[in-house]
Structures are given as C-alpha cells and as structure tokens.
Amino acid sequence: MIYYQFEIGLSPFEPWSEILTAHLGEISFEGFYEKEGLLYAFISKENFLKTEFNSIIDLINETVQVEVSFKEIPHQNWNAAWESNFEPVFIEDELAIIAPFHSIENNFKRTIVIEPKMSFGTGHHQTTYLMCKAILNTPLNGKRVLDMGSGTGVLAILCEMEGSSDVTAIDIEPWSVENCIKNALENKCNRIESLLGDVDLIQSRSFDLIFANINKNILLSHMAQYVKSLNQNGLLYLSGFFNSDSKDIRQVAESLQLQFVMKEELESWSMLVFKK
Fold first, then answer.
1. Residues facing residue 270 across a β-bridge
2. pLDDT tens-digit profile of 2-22?
3. Is-contact 112 128, C-beta < 8 A?
4. CA distance 197 to 191
5. Strand order in the sheet with 144-148
6. How far apart are the first and last CA of the chain?
7. Contact 184, 178 (CB under 8 A)
8. Domain spanning 87-275 has what CATH number?
9. Class in CATH terms, 2-83
C-alpha cells in the first residue's frame, strides 16, 4: 500500500497545527506528528481526496500562511517515520505512555505500552492527555466503562488498570480495533472487549462511565444514545473539540437532561463532564 506523507508549514504554527490536525482527521488522515515547526500528516493513496484536502488548506490559508509538500512512501516507511518521532508521554507523576522500543519507566504509578501504529490515542494529543488525567482522578473500581472512538485503546487500558470491572472499546476503523486488541494484550488486560462499529453497538448495553474522545459533530450525533446507555448517576466524559465548541456541546447535553459537572482545558482543546 502506498501512503502520502504531507509536510505542512504553518505561520503561526500554534494553535493552527492542532486545528488542521482535527480537520484532516475527519477526511481519513491516519497519523500525525510535529517536528521542527512542521506538521507531518499521513494518508493512504486510495483514501486521499484532493478536493477535500484542498478545501481544508484553503480554509486555513484564509487566516494563516500555509506551505504544503508531499511525497509517496511505502507503508513500512510510514510506520518507521511514526516510530522515530514517537516520544514518551508523561502525565504528572502518575502515568507514563511509552512505545515498545522505549525503556520501561519505573517512577510512575502506571506505565502503558502502546504500539504507535496508525490509530489515534498515544497521549500526545491534548484531548487524550485530558482524558487520561480525568481517568486517573475518577474512582473506577468495579465500574462498567465505554471507550467510544477507542483508537489505540489507551483509555480502555487505563480504565482497566484503574479497576474497571469490564470495558467496551469501540472504533469504526478496523486497524484501530486490531491495534486496541494488541495493546490490551501487551498491557496484560483481559477485561476489554474491542468492537468494530459505531454507536448502534451500545443500544442494548449500559455503562457507569462513558469516555468519548472523537469530534464535535460525531459527539452531537451520538449524544442521545450516550444518555440512553448511561446508568443513573453515571458520568459522561466528552473531548475531541475546541474550546469554542464547548458551548454547543453543553447546550445539547443539558437539553437531554444531563447535569454539567466540570470543564477542563488544555491549550485550545476542551473536555466536558456531565452526570445523568
């Protein structure tokens, strides 16, 4: 399989690299990293739609200066490029998220080993960081948990480590499901069920806590089902959107009788927590 590697220069770089990453993630781009003031973005040749890509670049270019170049690379070189730029993630003194090629960290309460393939959720992104921090500060012992849009499975894995009785991890991408299963085994987790599909998979299920780190439009379309599947007094954690989108998310959640609990921000990104 052939991949396109895009090198994108932005001036100013922040917060526009995060904004562009979010937009590209919605049109099948599969991985990103930042290095020396450039955003590197990867997508398979068969999934690349030039018109959609150009529309996003033109939209960003209305506000900031954008320079784009790309080249074709074999699939194995995409993995090598990702791995060579994957740095460990440390969340306070509680959690280290590392790759198999990193040294084991012994100075943290928890260490999660994540194979950094094409799935979203390595802890580098602000929203994953916010969600991991929230899990570390939430009593999970014996709780039934949903990780919606699970990506690598890092949130599901952390929930099991923190005592969840069972965890359902759902993603629409086959490689993410495979990656989640592999990462769960790597971290000796046996209470995670990784499923391929969308929100309809939870129609007959119930949860004490739901973690959904996706994007604004999908969260809004899923919200009613989240409420139906959330147990009374259950908590809903939502992230994957910008601070400017928080008002819309909260408005819809409260219209469904959810009680606002708290908001956390990191740079230009937000996490909202609600209670049923």
1. 241, 265
2. 889 999 999 988 778 878 887
3. no
4. 19
5. 192-196, 166-171, 144-148, 207-213, 230-242, 269-275, 259-266
6. 45
7. no
8. 3.40.50.150
9. alpha beta
Q: What is the pLDDT of residues 160-177, one digit of tens each?
A: 999 999 999 999 888 789
Burial 204-217 (b: 16+ CB within 10 A, else e): eeebbbbbbbbbbe
Which neighbouring-strand residues pair with 8?
A: 39, 68
pLDDT single digits (tens) 105-159: 678 889 999 876 544 555 567 888 999 999 999 999 999 999 999 988 999 999 9
CATH 3.40.50.150 residue window(s) in the chain? 87-275
CATH 3.30.70.980-classified regions of the chain:
2-83
Q: Is residue 114 helix, strand or coil?
A: coil
Cβ 33 vs Cβ 85: under 8 Å: yes
